[in-house]
Amino acid sequence: MMKKINLFTALLCALVIVTTPSFSQEAKDSIKTYPGGEAHSVKTYPHDFTGDRPKNVILFIGDGMGVAQVYAGLTANKGNLFLENFKHIGFTKTYSANRYITDSAAAATAIATGQKTDNGVIGMDPDQQSVKNITESASKRGIAAGIVATSSITHATPGAFVAHQRNRSQEEEIALDFLASGIDVFIGGGVDFFTKREDGRDLINEFTRQGYAVKQDLEEIRSFEGSKLLGLTAPRANGRLSDRGDMLPISTETAINVLKQNEKGFFLMVEGSFIDSGGHANNTIQIVEEVLDLDRAIGKALDFAAKDGQTLIVVASDHETGGMTINGGSFESGMVKGEFTTGGHTGVMTPIFAYGPGASEFGGIMENTDIHAKIYKLLFGEK
Ligand code: MG
Ligand code: ZN
After folding, report:
1. Which-ligand-closest: CA of 277?
2. 259: which residues sit within 8 A by CB, 6+ positions away?
3. For residue 123, how many other CB atoms are within 10 A of its CB?
4. Ligand (nearest to CA of 321)
5. Which of 65, 60, 111 is nearest to 320 (CA)?
6. Do the bridges between strand 350-355 and strand 229-232 make them parallel or antiparallel, or are there none, so unpaired?
7. Is the pTM of this model over 0.85?
8. Which ligand neighbours the alpha carbon of 319 most closely?
9. Nearest ligand to the CA atom of 346
C-alpha cells in the first residue's frame, strides 16, 4: 500500500513538473495577449485629388508589419484605424537577393533603390556597388527629402534611404553618409553615432555648420519652423511608447511642415521601427502599441494630404516578424490574443496600402522593388 502511494505521489509530481510552466514561460504567455486599453479616434477623409500624379509622396514602413499585426492594431483600437481610409491595397513579395527570408537592410534597400540585395547590405547591390536611392533621385531634381524613424536614424531601414554601406552594423559610417546627403530633415534616435565616434568627429557640429538646426528635445522638434533639421531624440533607439510618447506622430508632422516649403514637392519616409521588436519578442502588447503609434502618425499625414490633394501616401512593410496569428479578440474591450510561430522574420507577403493621386498603382501582388519603381514613375514622371 505504502509503495503504491509513493508511486502515485511520484507520478503526480512528475505530472506537475511537466505541466507547470516556468515563470519565464508564464511571462512569455502573458505578453501574448493585449488586454485592451485606450483607443484613438479616427477620421474619414475625402478622396478629392488633383490630377493622377502626386507632387509629394509620404512612404510609411511598418517594420515587421504583416496582416496579423495590422488586424491586432485594428482590433485593439476597437474596430477602426486611420489606415482604413486607404482604398488601394496590394501585397509585396519580400525575399532578398540571397535569402527567401529577408532582413530589414535588404528589404529597405529594395524599397529605396529598386535593387534586391543580400541580407545586411545598405544601398548596394550584391556586388557591393552603390545603387541610387529615391532621396538622391529627388534631391537631384530639386525635390525635398526627409526621413523619420523611431529606431536610431542610422538603423537599417532609414539607413537604406540615404546611405551606401556593406553592412547595416556600420552606423557611424551611415551617419557620415547622412552628412553628405544634403537631405532636408532627419528625425530619429542615435545621437551616439554622431558624437561618440571612433573617428572622434562631432557630426552635430558639422551638421550645424552645414546650416541644420540640431534638436534633441521633442518639444523643440514639435515647434520647429526652419528648413533644415536634424532631430535626435535618444542616444540610440528611442524607448517603448511609454518612454518616447508621441515622438513619431510629432516628428511626422514637423517633417511635413519642413518639406512642404519646397515648391517642387517632397519625398518623406516614416518608419514605425518597433513593430518588428514586438514580433521578435512574441509580444502582442508591444505590437499593438507600435501599430497604433504608426496609425496615429498616418493620421497626421492624412490631415495634410486630404487638404493638399497632391500627396500620395503609401503604407508598406519590409517583412513580417514572429509568424503572428490572432486566436481571439474583442472589439468591445480591444483585447487581442496573439500567437506566434517564430522569434524571427517570416517569408509571407506583406500588405501595402495607398491613398492619393497614383494610389491605384499599388493594387495586386508586387515585388518590393516595384514600390521604388512606382514611386519613382509617379513622383518624377519618368521610368
Ligand atoms: Mg527597421
Ligand atoms: Zn527584425
Report:
1. 2
2. 56, 144, 145, 146, 184, 185, 266, 268
3. 26
4. 2
5. 65
6. unpaired
7. yes
8. 2
9. 2
Question: How far does residue 102's CA lie from ligand 2's centre (Å)?
Answer: 9
DSSP string, 149-182: EEEETTSHHHHHTT--BS-TT-HHHHHHHHHHH-
Given the C-alpha cell 537599417, which residue does it identify? 156
C-alpha triplet 302, 303, 308: angle, nearest 5°: 90
Q: For 156, phi and psi rounded to 5 degrees?
A: -55, -50
Please give the distance, rounded to the nearest whole angstrom, from the Cα atom of residue 30 to the centre of ligand 2.
Answer: 22
- pLDDT tens column, 140-182: 999 999 999 999 999 999 999 999 999 999 999 999 999 999 9
Cα–Cα distance for residue pair 273/271, rounded to 1 Å: 5
d(CA 155, ligand 1 centre) in Å: 7
Cell numbers that stand for 249 in this block: 506622430
Q: Which ligand is nearest to the CA of 160?
A: 1
**Who surrounds ion ligand 2 at CB < 5 A?**
276
> Which residue matches cell numbers 551616439?
192
Question: Residue 88: beta bridge partners?
Answer: 354
- Residue found by looking up cell 503604407 in the block: 315
Q: Which residues does 17 contact at the CB level (< 8 Å), separation at least 6?
A: none
- The position carrying cell 529594395 is 110
Say which ligand is closest to the CA of 64: 2
Q: Which ligand is nearest to the CA of 273?
A: 1
Distance CA 268, CA 211 (A): 20
332 C-alpha to ligand 1 centroid (Å)? 32
CA proximity to 265, closest of 186, 177, 187, 375: 375
Extract the residue ranges of the chain whose pLDDT is less than 50. Answer: 1-2
Q: What is the C-alpha separation between 193 and 202, in angstroms, rounded? A: 9
The model's pLDDT over 200-228, given as tens digits with 9 standing for 90+, comes to: 999 999 999 999 999 999 999 999 999 99
Distance 270 CA to ligand 2 centre (A): 17
The per-residue pLDDT for range 91-102, each reduced to its tens digit, is 999 999 999 999
Which of these, 255, 288, 300, lies nearest to 43 by C-alpha position? 300
Among residues 199, 195, 240, 239, the alpha carbon closest in space to that of 214 is found at 195
CA of 359 to the centre of ligand 1 (A): 24
